[in-house]
Structures are given as structure tokens and as C-alpha cells.
Amino acid sequence: MSRKVGEVRVPKAGWVRFRWSRAVPPDAKSYRMTRDRAGRWHVAFAVIPAPVPAPGNGQTVGIDRGVAVSAALSTGQMLHAPGLTGRERTRLRRLQRTLARAKRGSNRRGRVKGAIARLQARETDRRKDWAEKTSTGIARRFDLIRVEDLQITNMTRSAKGTREHPGRNVRAKAGLNRQILRSGWGLLVRRLEEKAPGRVEKINPAFTSQRCSACGRVDRARVRAKPCSGALPAVSPVTLT
């Protein structure tokens, strides 16, 4: 209809207006409408984008994913996935306490749950936007991208255990799981694989973080045996070679 507003025909609902967020390629043939937990409706057009072309500079980068630093590049660049601000986190905690006191099925509880969902959706949107921009920038700058092959599902598994064999440090493990998921580890690598197909290598994470105390080199054989004399050049552990 215009540069900002379009229309799609929804079965049993007729023509529905929506606001453009980006231009849709002409080869789009289908679309899907969804509603998120914050009550927002989205329309997504099915288009497979072209991969990001390699720069052809022969450069290789290693990416080490962590909690304090979401992604540390072997170039020394530290990337942090954005989250809620301090004021937003304070408001979220206040809303969660209010939700715990609200009566089930009440209108007040519904309003509080909606406010919490909007804050959590805002955090998710920021993380997705960061992953998109970061993955595009990395794919444009490097020919080969190496990451640790982390089993995120196993790493974020609950530590509660069973009644017969209860887990230990359950609250600390739950907090670590939340921080891992908020760092967007899996989303970043998935978008890199989609934007730079054939240029992402997953490395066995075993021994990639062990550094020789004498020379700084990361070498599985040397670290397991004994430190060398210090004659070898230092190599950052995030090169993942």
C-alpha cells in the first residue's frame, strides 16, 4: 500500500495490514504469521537469502564463547550480547515478586504476566539483533571461521537430580544456565553457518583452553606432558587450531 504499510490476505480473516520492517525480495512465495509471548503479531515471508561472500583475504578467526564475554575473537576483540538495562532488571524483579503474590486467574496476575513477557521479549529482540549484526560482520571480514563444538543442550541441563540422588549447587547451576542462554552461543554459530556456508569449522573443545605456563602455547601434547622451555611463540587459546 505504501512504503511503511502493506497488506496480506489471511484465510478466514481477509486482508490484514502490517508495517514493513524491511524490503521483501520479489521471489517470496509464502508467508507465516505468528504471535509471540508479548502478544505481538509478526508476518514472515519465506525467502532464502544469498550467503555472505567471502572477503578473499585468507584470514582465519577463532571464536571463544563465554559468559562474561559472549564471544572473544582471536584478534583480541571482545563482543558482548546485550540484555536488559539495570533499571529494566530491577523492574523485572519487582514484577516477578508481584506475580508470586498475585492470585491465580485474577486480572492483576494477567497484567503482570504481560508486563514480564514484554520485558523478556525486549531482551530476546536485542540478542537476536546482536547475533545478526555480529555474524554478518564476522562473515564479511574472515575467510575461515573456527568455533568450539560445544554441546549447549548438555551444558545447560538442570542439576536438580532426583529425590534419591539430589543434585548439588542447584541454584548456582541454574544461574549459569541462564547466563549461557542469554549469551546467544547457539544462535551466533547457527547464523554464521547459514551466512557463511562451508567456511565455519567446529573444533573439538578438549584442551583448547589449556595454555603452557612457560611459553603460552596451546598444545595438547605439551600441556599433558610437561611445560616446554619457553622457546615457542605464544598462541592465543581462541585461535582453535
**Relative helix content:** 25-40%
Taken as a percent bin, the fraction of beta residues is 15-25%
Instruction: Give the strand line-up of the largest sheet.
Output: 7-6-5-8-9
What would the average pLDDT be, to the nearest integer?
83
- List low-confidence stretches: 230-239
Report on the structure:
Helix content is 35%, strand content 17%. It is of the alpha/beta class and 241 residues long. The strands form three sheets. A five-stranded mixed β-sheet has the order 7-6-5-8-9, with helices on one face. Strands 1-2 form a two-stranded antiparallel sheet. It has a two-stranded antiparallel ribbon with strand order 3-4. Strand 3 and strand 4 form a beta hairpin. Helix 1 (86-101) packs antiparallel against helix 2 (107-141) and helix 2 (107-141) crosses helix 5. The longest helix is centred in the middle third of the chain and has 35 residues, at 107-141. 15% of the residues are buried. Residues 230-239 have low confidence and may be disordered.
